[in-house]
């Protein structure tokens, strides 16, 4: 586009402006372009999903918690259920101790001559003590390796 020099002759140098009324009419007839989401859409997303799923007569404020009363003391029914759980029998407990992999690993380490931590030693002591109690309760005789050696040595003497 070429430039025109100003001249002293009367006439418009620039196109005239439209009146305000005409501009307002044009802006109302134009379709509004939507750019992005509406304000607050990230907070109202969960609310919109809930409304779509179920229609509630009252709008509840999600900031307030449940009004359902909480029992501070356990009801008797729950206490009796806990008490009614069957305790394992001595035989089942003994089998569980025999199948305990952690206990077997600790015994193997102890027999190999390695040092164990205090927590491992306390676990080993408590489990072996319980094993001895259960064996005594069931009337099982525990064979110690030393007793077998003594018996074997006694047989050689004869």
TrEMBL record:
Biased composition (Basic residues): 30-46
Highest taxon, organism lineage: Bacteria
Ranges of compositional bias, category Acidic residues: 138-158
GO molecular function per UniProt: GTPase activator activity
Any Gene Ontology biological process: ribosome biogenesis
Residue ranges, compositional bias (Basic and acidic residues): 18-29
Keyword terms of this UniProt record: GTPase activation, Ribosome biogenesis
Region listing for Disordered, in residue ranges: 1-69, 136-158
Ribonucleoprotein as UniProt keyword: no
Protein name: Der GTPase-activating protein YihI
